[in-house]
Amino acid sequence: MTLAIDRPETSPAPLSDLVARDAREFGVYARTGGWAFGLMVARSVRPGGQGADETPKVSAKEFAELAGCSPERVMRYYKAWDRAADDGLVPHFEELAPGQELELPDADVWLTYYVSRSGATSERGTAIAEAAAAEGIRPTKALEVAENPTALRAAILADPSTARAARAALLDRVREDPELQTELARDVVRTDDLKKAVATESRSADRIGYVRQIAESGQVRTPAGQTIDAPAELRQEAERHLSLIDELNEGEDAGEWAAEAYDTMKNLVVETVEADPELRVQERRTKFYSSLQKATRVFEELTFDDAQDFYEDDMVQRLEDLQQAIGSCITALRGARGNAGGAE
Questions:
Q1: In whole angstroms, what is the distance from residue 212 CA to residue 218 CA?
Q2: Residue 285 above 60 pLDDT?
Q3: What domain of life does the UniProt record list for this protein's source (predicted)?
Q4: 177-227 per-position pLDDT tens digit
């Protein structure tokens, strides 16, 4: 048999005033964030232009000494409140008295006006803060990154997603910064791996451009340099290859697809030319004229003003062989002209 023993009821310990005060202050800050401290500054620090005899408020320097912090920190809260007051969100300094209480805006809104670093007040800091606002992020985050390039470098080196974000941002900046364009181009050409990668991507882009030109304009350049109307089948094939390339994911390499599309179109162009007798003749005529112009240009660049300084018998022999080859060409062309006349 167990005897029940009556125990005296224990009453809770009295609540400490210090705990209660901490809880109240914590609740205020949880609801209002930096506005609570901004209000302390706004109602206790006198605005510029007001003398000490006009108000019970103190200077930012005096307030900082009483608070045990720097005047610069006090002024950051002061300027944040001033900006919010200009937007009509809170009263101006002149309307506030020491100890006055207000219903404060939401905590998240404070970050729109307050930046925790003195660098934010510079022209550079202002630009960073504005860019952060445009991206929908806190200015303090952007300023922290800007003030610690080593941390940014470490994140880029360690994290692929950060590197991709940095690449995208750099490309956006390059479009507006000619000096950065030059510096970046110089870095690329001085780095062998990057130079090869750029050459590969450039070749791929040129090949895709060739196929796209056929699909969109309906015209194509032949191997000899003629521009002709692409047959419907050729244009459809170009569109098919383009659709395959356009459907690739952003991270996929388009190089192989571009090479296949380019080679396919080149072969089809050759087949198109060879299938049309008139076009085939025109292609050969164009190729002949192109080669003749190149040979003429090379020969015209030869100079013999100081031939005595570099003369060798082999040079004369080569020119004589060339003269014979040209003579044979002329004979063949004249014979072809005679045959054409006889056929008529």
A1: 9
A2: yes
A3: Bacteria
A4: 889 889 988 988 899 998 898 888 899 999 999 999 999 998 988 888 888
58, β-bridge pairs: 45
Q: Residue 113 corresponds to which amino acid?
A: Y
If residue 110 lies in a helix (H) or strand (E), which one and from where to where? Answer: helix 107-113
Same domain, 81 and 138: no
Look at residues 173, 189, 205 and tell me which one is the last residue of a structural domain: 189
Query: Does residue 201 form part of some domain?
Result: yes
Does 172 fall in a domain?
yes
Q: Which amino acid, one-letter code, is at 92?
A: H
The CA distances from residue 8 to 3, 5, 242, in Å, are 16, 10, 87
Final residue belonging to a domain, choices 93, 114, 135: 114
42 neighbors 78 (Cβ within 8 angstroms): yes
Q: What is the DSSP string of 32-86?
A: HTTHHHHHHHHHHBPPTT--TTT-S-B-HHHHHHHHTS-HHHHHHHHHHHHHHHH
Quick one: how far is CA 264 from the chain centroid? 33
**Nearest-CA neighbor of 132 among 152, 111, 150, 105?**
111
Q: Where are the alpha helices (DSSP H) in 190-312?
A: 192-217, 232-246, 255-275, 277-300
Query: Do residues 139 and 120 make contact, with C-beta atoms less than 8 angstroms apart?
Result: yes
Would the pTM of this model clear 0.85, i.e. be above it? no
Instruction: Count CB-CB contacts under 10 A for residue 205.
Output: 13
Give the angle 108-112-116 at the CA atoms, nearest 5°: 95
The two beta strands, 219-221 and 227-229, are antiparallel
Per the CB < 8 A criterion, the answer to whether 154 and 143 are in contact is no
176: enclosing H helix or E strand: none
Asked, for residue 77, whether it belongs to a domain, the answer is yes
- Tell me: do 38 and 82 sit in the same domain: yes
Is 65 within the bounds of a domain? Answer: yes
Return all residues near 336 (Cβ < 8 A) that are at least 6 apart: none
Mean pLDDT of 137-164: 81
Crossing angle of the two packed helices 60-67 and 35-44, in degrees rounded to 10:
130
The domain in which residue 110 lies consists of 20-114
Q: Phi/psi at 58 (nearest 5 deg)?
A: -115, 170
Residue 332 corresponds to which amino acid? Answer: A
